[in-house]
Amino acid sequence: MGRQPLIMKDPILLVGSAHTAIVNVPVSPSGMACTAELFLSADGEKTKATTSGAIPFTSTGIVQSISLPVVMPTVGGIAYGVYINIVSGGVVIAAYQGTENVIVPLVGAPTIAWG
Question: Which of 57, 63, 59 shows the shortest CA–CA distance to 30?
Answer without folding.
Answer: 59
